[in-house]
Amino acid sequence: PxxxxxxxxxxxxxxxxxAALDGSDQVDVACxxxxxxxxxxxxxxxxALCAGAAKCLxxxxxxxxxxEDPDATVRIACAQSLREFGNEQGAAWALVAALGDxxxxxxxxxxxxxxGFCGEASISFRPAVARAVCARLLDRSxxxxxxxxxxxxxxxxxxxxxxxxxxxxxxxxxxxxxNDKNVFTRRExxxxxxxxxxxxxxxxxxxxxxxxxxxxxxxLAREAILGLDYARGGLLRPNERALFTGPVLxxxxxxxxxxxxKALVLTDEPRLFYCDADGANPKSCDVASLAADGAxxxxxxxxxxxxxxxxxxxxxxxxxxxxxxxxxxxxxxALAEAWSEAPASAPVAEFVREASDEEVPVAVxxxxxxxxxxxxxxxx
Length: 380
Known about the structure:
Number of helices: 15
Radius of gyration: 25 Å
Mean pLDDT: 85
């Protein structure tokens, strides 16, 4: 009976978890036959889960069933099990196809299973897989808007788990964050960028700070901005660690006129520099020259460029001075000391009117906000 076959498959799966039958040819054959059971959905589902536990592709039937099985629960089990085959290109492409499944639950589990493909074993084919997922994200041709949006959200989640840092991945997520009409897709794009932490995303995330279509977006964007990892942009030296980072507005003069969005970074050397909103064109600054100028910072740029004024987008100017002083005394404990009693943050959406590195008018208050602001970054 089917119940007995299910029990046997569950037992094989349990033994496989203990490595007693991991990769066994006998289990592979048994799962392959059970996946073709036309009479029992439960047997096929148990076989799919057993194949994942035993790390056997069941003679390719696991890849076939994730796309072809008529029952969604079996396709879900197949998608879950394919996570265990991070070195198998065929498994990755099967998950890409599953992102277009007609059942939202299958798409969700397929997207989550991409976290099995973010290691060294998939490095040779991961960029191509990421580009295929990006194509799904950018495809807005489906006439059923709710279905297409769910598929695009699943594509964002897949990219978040896949951890590919290619330009096509970042560009697709930036486009979705800015242009997708569905609020859930935009949120998933923001979460994916928060997971990737690439500094090239600052401009796109700053634009999301002023997204008036979604009350939750500014907080999601702020969290993503504060988590950007400037080592991923090639901006840090070997063994150098960023202690304190945050977006700033480079002001052209003391009046509220024209500004440029930049990222300011303090490292444990200590070293201070700012770069463009896409992580390019870093400018080294004299750490000792950093000073508060009202609500702004002022610092001397090395190379004869003179002193510039920078308005922190989050927090207060004094917090940068505290972090600089703490890093000079004890680099490893700089942020712990600076932020031991950090207050809650004030809203910052009003600070940004245009998310662009082009010169644009931006209103920067000349006094600190009424609510006490929070630190620019968490302790790393």
